[in-house]
Design a protein that fits this description.
Strand content: under 5%
Distance between the termini: 91 Å
Structural class: mainly alpha
CATH class of the domain at 1-149: Mainly Alpha
CATH topology of the domain at 1-149: Serine Threonine Protein Phosphatase 5, Tetratricopeptide repeat
Helix content: over 70%
Order of helices and strands: HEEHHHHHHHHHHHHHHHHHHHHH
Number of helices: 22
Largest sheet: 2 strands, antiparallel
Strand order of the largest sheet: 1-2
Length: about 425
């Protein structure tokens, strides 16, 4: 994930920085006493001028991007490491690490930085900086247990509160190691401490916290983090994700409210999000809004005119009682369908619109295609349409077919009696007129 390394790798990469961190100046050649804690001091040997000069040569070569030359110089220095003190060896290995890191040879960089902290005694500030760099680099390389170990070594030297950046790296390492409970502890403390100082947490910290809560199956906490992300960063993706989380929690009205607000701000732009919003409108009994949204998206080419979209658009227009708009859409959808289900739905819409001939044609197509959930209903629709065309005998034939199916039997029988009565009346009237 992109947020795994949310802090940049920081280490004493150049000689000037190393000397600044450790408190050694170029002209100093004296031993230092660096305070390690309230109880003890650490006596550190001198960085001698001749070693400094060799390291400076390597630094110059590295600055000129001649990494091979820089390594060659350091190799010459390393040949004499038996005559060097712990601080000089640490500085040498730190330069190795810096050069290998710049060359993107991270395994060698890690090995070199690890040797830095093996040299003792060295200035405490230098050791802590290197430990932190090792924690970051191990995290980047997927060595999560090692990353945590180096952070804990850093903490053993630290006398003040643990900074949020350390807690974040720990949380990342535990998250990647699938220890979500511990990851939750550290990310929460980092964010709480930061906010207690009146500061806004980094966006990536909240993204990590959201991911941890998700893995812990704590949707309420995921929702709270998303609310914070929406308030602090107002990114379209957070609005959409928050709406989805309300849906997961069964708070559909809030889900619709968030999605509609996101749409009004221009955040609902993808085909998936548009379709989801249209579904929300449909299920919350405002199908007209959903149909308008989908129709516009299709016109603009955002939504494809495929079977799924056309079917849902047709159903939305139908629920909105916009039959004139539903009919052409359902007809187009039915043409794309291999089974007769959509033709059956179209037949019902056409029947309600009193377009008897078209209803009969749609019913016939439905019967021909087959695979109907309720075939009796199609025969019933066809029988009713034929009745309205005064084709009583044909209507009775279709109603007899509908009567064969349990779901449509009762209604088919009622219509059959009604049509038979109407047929008899028409026959009597015909006889009377002819006599």
């Amino acid at each position: 994930m992109n947020w795994v390394l949310s802090t940049r790798l920081v280490f004493a990469g150049t000689l000037a920085i190393c000397l600044l961190v450790t408190g050694v100046s170029v002209n100093q050649a004296v031993a230092q006493d660096v305070k390690a804690s309230d109880k003890k001091t650490r006596k550190v040997p001198t960085l001698r001028a001749k070693v400094y000069e060799q390291l400076a040569r390597a630094q110059t070569a590295a600055d000129e991007e001649d990494l091979d030359e820089a390594i060659a110089i350091l190799d010459e220095v390393e040949e004499k490491k038996s005559s060097m003190n712990s601080y000089e060896r640490a500085m040498m290995y730190n330069f190795y690490g810096f050069i290998y890191y710049n060359a993107e040879d991270y395994d060698k960089a890690l090995a070199s930085f690890a040797k830095v902290v093996e040299q003792q005694p060295i200035p405490e500030a230098f050791e802590m900086t290197t430990l932190f760099s090792l924690a970051q680099l191990n995290l980047m390389q997927g060595n999560y247990a090692q990353s945590i170990d180096y952070l804990e070594r850093w903490e053993s030297l630290n006398t003040g509160p643990v900074p949020p950046k350390n807690l974040i790296i720990k949380a990342q390492a535990y998250y990647q190691n699938k220890d979500y409970e511990k990851a939750s502890t550290y990310i929460t403390k980092a964010i709480d401490d930061h906010e207690a100082q009146g500061m806004v947490p980094d966006e990536n910290w909240l993204i990590l916290q959201r991911a941890i809560y998700y893995e812990l199956k704590q949707p309420e906490k995921v929702k709270e983090v998303l609310i914070k992300l929406v308030k602090l960063f107002d990114e379209p993706k957070y609005w959409i994700q928050l709406a989805g989380m309300y849906g997961e929690l069964g708070e559909e009205r809030k889900q619709l409210a968030i999605m509609e607000s996101a749409y009004q701000q221009g955040y609902v732009t993808s085909s998936a999000d548009i379709f989801n919003l249209a579904q929300l409108y449909y299920y919350h009994k405002v199908p007209y809004k959903g149909a308008k949204l989908m129709a516009q998206a299709m016109e603009e080419g955002v939504l494809d005119k495929n079977l799924r979209n056309l079917k849902f658009l047709g159903q939305s227009w139908t629920l909105a009682k916009e039959q004139d708009k539903a009919i052409p859409v359902m007809r187009e959808a039915a043409m794309l369908s291999d089974d007769g289900e959509l033709d059956a739905q179209l037949a019902q819409i056409l029947l309600n619109a009193e377009r008897w001939g078209e209803a009969i044609e749609a019913a016939d197509r439905a019967i021909d295609k087959g695979e109907l959930r309720n075939p009796g209903l199609v025969y019933l629709v066809k029988g009713m349409a034929l009745y309205n065309q005064k084709q009583y005998a044909n209507a009775l034939n279709q109603l007899a077919e509908a009567e064969k199916h349990q779901k449509s039997r009762a209604m088919a029988q009622q219509w059959k009696r009604f049509v038979e009565t109407e047929k008899q009346q028409q026959e009597r009237l015909a006889v009377e007129l002819s006599s």
